[in-house]
């Protein structure tokens, strides 16, 4: 989706909760989401379901998106995660266990793997990305991360677990 199609004023109004701006943002984003879902999902039914799920998630979380520049990447990552989930649910794609996922990753060339890991970090929602970067890149402890974010240990651990699961899903799709 081109961020140019959405005015900064519309995006900011939607982010701040204006119902008319949110409706307009959903209407503007829908064709691009649907087009991307059709190219990404295995079936047209899954593409329609992924589009609806992405719009629903956008409606619920528009206030958490940091900037208009991050908007399209965030939205497309929702669709990118949703398509394999729907395929697994329909029995079209087997769920990959941790050992199979690790074996799959180890077969990739190192440079490709680095690029894929960087892209996986970028695809994470900001609250998961921050925790994963602090723990896995900066090698901070759970306690240090909790203090830095002003969050509880349980919150940090839950976000880290979810971030790693999303990254695993991204890397093995």
The N- to C-terminal Cα distance equals 21 Å
**CATH topology descriptor of the largest domain:** Rna Polymerase Sigma Factor, Chain: A
Class inferred from helices and paired strands? mainly alpha
Number of helices: 9
What is the CATH C-level name of the largest domain? Mainly Alpha
Protein name: RNA polymerase sigma factor, sigma-70 family
Family: Belongs to the sigma-70 factor family. ECF subfamily.
Pfam family, one: Sigma70_r4_2
GO molecular function, one term: DNA binding
Characterise this structure.
- The protein is mainly alpha-helical and 173 residues long.
- It has 2 domains: 8-99, Orthogonal Bundle (Rna Polymerase Sigma Factor, Chain: A), CATH 1.10.1740.10; 109-172, Winged helix-like DNA-binding domain superfamily/Winged helix DNA-binding domain (Arc Repressor Mutant, subunit A), CATH 1.10.10.
- 77% of the residues lie in helices and 0% in strands.
- It is built from 9 helices and no strands.
- The longest helix has 22 residues, at 19-40.
- The protein starts with 7 loop residues before the first helix and ends with a helix.
- The model has no long low-confidence stretch (mean pLDDT 83).
């Amino acid at each position: 989706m081109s961020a140019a199609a959405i005015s900064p004023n519309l995006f900011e109004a939607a982010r701040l909760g204006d119902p008319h701006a949110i409706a307009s943002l959903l209407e503007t984003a829908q064709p691009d989401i649907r087009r991307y879902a059709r190219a990404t999902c295995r079936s047209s039914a899954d593409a329609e379901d992924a589009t609806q799920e992405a719009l629903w998630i956008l409606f619920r979380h528009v206030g958490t998106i940091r900037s208009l520049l991050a908007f399209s990447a965030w939205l497309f990552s929702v669709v990118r995660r949703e398509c394999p989930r729907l395929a697994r649910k329909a029995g079209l794609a087997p769920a990959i266990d941790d050992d199979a996922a690790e074996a799959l990753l180890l077969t990739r060339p190192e440079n490709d793997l680095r690029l894929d890991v960087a892209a996986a970090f970028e695809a994470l929602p900001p609250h998961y990305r921050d925790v994963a970067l602090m723990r896995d890149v900066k090698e901070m402890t759970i306690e240090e991360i909790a203090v830095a974010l002003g969050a509880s240990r349980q919150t940090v651990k839950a976000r880290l677990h979810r971030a790693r699961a999303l990254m695993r899903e991204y890397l093995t799709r």
